[in-house]
Design a protein that fits this description.
The chain is α/β, with parallel strands linked by helices and about 200 residues long. It has helices spanning about 5-20, 40-45, 60-75, 85-100, 120-125, 155-160, 185-195, and strands at about 25-30, 50, 80-85, 105-110, 140-145, 165-170.
Length: about 200
């Protein structure tokens, strides 16, 4: 993952100063990913959050994504905060069950987890089942709605319970991405700050 320089470093410093000294905020796009959309893009450009790039967005291999997440967490200079969307929420749960570096994670904001068992997805996303449902070893919050294309609200709530995460329903916000008209999602920033409070 490329580092930031110049204005990007300043933005990262200012963003992290509002969350906690020395924190690195890692944005984990879901499938089909790429870090674009209403809110992930401005969070990266304006606030200095770092987008974790994966090798293959269209045909995600679980093992490759796990290895990449471990790599960027290890490389971070201090504690990290994970902000995951869609399939990346499922990635975080799987990674937390396997990695020896979960102690570096201060908190995780898990936005609109993707139900990989939904119609048509098992064939498109082989290797992502079963979903790891054990409690996460760090503070976490699941944000979701009942109007996303690949996840029901009751399913997402049950996932939050299994992960020992806080649950926050977003009403009709869709999949909380570029098709949901959230802009740069200032409420997401507020949720992240709340999550990081002691």
């Amino acid at each position: 993952m490329a580092g930031l320089s110049g204005a990007g470093q300043l933005a990262e410093h200012e963003a992290n100063a509002g969350l906690g000294q020395g924190l690195t905020v890692l944005l984990l796009p879901g499938w089909p990913g790429g870090g674009t959309g209403d809110w992930p893009e401005p969070w990266a450009q304006r606030d200095g959050c770092r987008v974790v790039e994966q090798n293959d967005w269209l045909r995600p291999r679980r093992g490759d994504w796990l290895a990449r997440l471990d790599e960027v967490v290890i490389d971070a200079p201090g504690p990290v905060v994970l902000v995951a969307h869609s399939l990346a929420c499922i990635l975080v749960a799987a990674w937390a069950s396997l990695s020896q570096h979960t102690g570096k994670v201060r908190a995780a904001l898990l936005v609109s987890p993707l139900d990989v068992a939904a119609c048509g997805l098992p064939e498109t996303l082989p290797g992502w089942q079963p979903i790891v449902r054990q409690p996460l070893p760090f503070r976490s919050m699941v944000v979701g709605s009942g109007h996303g294309p690949h996840g029901r609200v009751d399913w997402a709530q049950a996932l939050a319970r299994d992960w020992s995460a806080q649950w926050l329903g977003q009403g009709s916000a869709g999949h909380t991405t570029d098709d949901s008209s959230l802009g740069d999602w200032p409420q997401g920033h507020a949720l992240l700050r709340t999550l990081l409070k002691d």
